[in-house]
Structures are given as C-alpha cells and as structure tokens.
C-alpha cells in the first residue's frame, strides 16, 4: 500500500489537472484514475468531483453520497481517517442528503473496484507461483487454477460491461456496470483469500486491505445486491431487456 495520504493525493491530482481532464475527457480520466486507485491501494476523495461535475457544479468540494442500506455518507477532503467506514478512509455517516446524479459516480466506483480486483488477483497469482507444496507450485493444482480463472473471467466481464456502457452511456448501463464490478470484486476477494490461505488474513499481507476497501466501495452508491434488485425491478417495469451491447 502507498504511504501517501488521500489528502496529499487529492492535491497532487489537482495540480496535475485532474479537474480539467474530468471536463475535457471524462471517460478516459475516470477509467484511468479510478482504476489506478484500485490497483495501487491508494485513495483520494475525488468521487466528490465526479458527482459534483455530473450535477453541474464545480469540483473541489464534498457532497453527501447514498450508501447501502439507505444511509448517506460524506467523503471528506482531509487526511483524518474515520472509524465509521474503513480504518483508512475519511468517510463518515451523515443524517441526510439530497438526491444526486448517480450514473457517473457509479462508473467511477466500478473502475475502482475493477482496479482493486486486479490487485487482489495479482497477489494471489504470485503467491500461487511462489508457494510450493508436495514439491510442486500450488499454481499447478487444478482447484487453484479454477479459482484464479473464475476470478479473471469475473473481472473481464465487469470491464466489458463498463466498456459497453461507455459506448452508449445511460443510467441503466451504469447501474449494471457498478453491480458487475461489485460482484467481480466480491468474487475476487473470496477466491483470492482461498488461494492465499492463512497468510491472507495477516496484517502483514496486503490482501486484507484490498478486501476491506472492496467492502466499503461496494456499498457506495448502491451495493451489488441492491443494484441487482433494482435492475430486476426496472426490467419487470419495462417488460423487456434492453440491448446492452451491439455484438
């Protein structure tokens, strides 16, 4: 994990022209920056910027964000962590919030979850190659290979959903992309924990930090379970399933 604080990274991104990128090339900026946050284990309160920009406001502030279970949270632009959600993140619950556009924020969190999934898969893959049992790397065992393969398929599927939504962006596509990325991250956490075994539970190994981050991010702007139910309700109301990608 990186030693830089979220506040420091927030300032550094602003100096690099993050807000200008968000205005000029939002799809590229969001996919690149949020995926890198996941892959590196870093964090910054820039989800505020994405949501505020999509609502027609300037970035640089904070906004109350909906969270799983009908709660509201605020991601502060400070270095002081909160014990409410995650040990390393300055997020705390607030009593209420106002409706905000969700599609752009869901895409951003989805890319973050994809990046975190890639990081967990990399840790598990390297462990499987290095760890030797019965004179063979555990990567040669079929059960290990199946878990890693299922993880990769889940991640690639989530990325494909994000790319499909980027081609024809709409609120329903963003909802599905966030749900797919959350499900992929949860699947990744489960399989990678099994591959790593006991070492994955230790404070010295990085996996547990990515797992905790994944659990927090999954609840942001709607959890996987909530979004799946919402998607089902939308399909029942429409009476048909819309085309998500032109193959």
UniProtKB/TrEMBL annotation:
This is Acyl-CoA dehydrogenase. GO terms for biological process: fatty acid beta-oxidation using acyl-CoA dehydrogenase. Coiled coil: none annotated. The keyword RNA-binding does not apply. One of its GO terms (cellular component) is cytoplasm. It comes from Mycobacterium kyorinense. Keywords: FAD, Flavoprotein, Oxidoreductase. One of its GO terms (molecular function) is acyl-CoA dehydrogenase activity. The keyword Flavoprotein applies. It holds the Pfam family Acyl-CoA_dh_1. Residues 102-223 form the Acyl-CoA dehydrogenase/oxidase C-terminal domain.
């Amino acid at each position: 994990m990186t030693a830089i604080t979220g506040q420091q990274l927030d300032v550094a991104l602003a100096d690099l022209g993050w807000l200008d990128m968000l205005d000029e090339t939002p799809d590229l900026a969001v996919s690149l920056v949020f995926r890198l946050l996941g892959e590196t284990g870093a964090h910054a309160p820039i989800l505020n910027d994405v949501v505020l920009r999509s609502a027609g406001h300037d970035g640089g502030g904070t906004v109350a964000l909906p969270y799983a279970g009908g709660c509201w949270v605020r991601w502060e632009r400070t270095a002081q962590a909160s014990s409410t959600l995650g040990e390393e993140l300055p997020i705390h619950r607030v009593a209420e919030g106002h409706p905000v556009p969700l599609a752009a924020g869901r895409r951003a969190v989805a890319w973050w979850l994809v990046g975190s999934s890639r990081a967990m898969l990399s840790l598990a893959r390297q462990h499987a190659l290095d760890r030797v049992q019965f004179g063979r790397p555990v990567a040669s065992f079929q059960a290990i290979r199946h878990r890693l393969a299922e993880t990769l398929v889940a991640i690639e599927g989530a990325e494909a959903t994000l790319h499909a939504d980027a081609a024809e962006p709409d609120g329903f596509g963003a909802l599905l992309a966030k749900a797919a990325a959350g499900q992929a991250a949860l699947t990744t956490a489960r399989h990678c924990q099994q591959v790593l075994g006991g070492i994955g539970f230790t404070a010295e190994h990085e996996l547990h930090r990515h797992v905790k981050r994944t659990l927090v991010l999954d609840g942001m702007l709607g959890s996987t379970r909530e979004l799946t139910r919402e998607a089902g309700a939308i399909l029942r109301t429409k009476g048909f399933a819309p085309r998500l990608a032109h193959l």
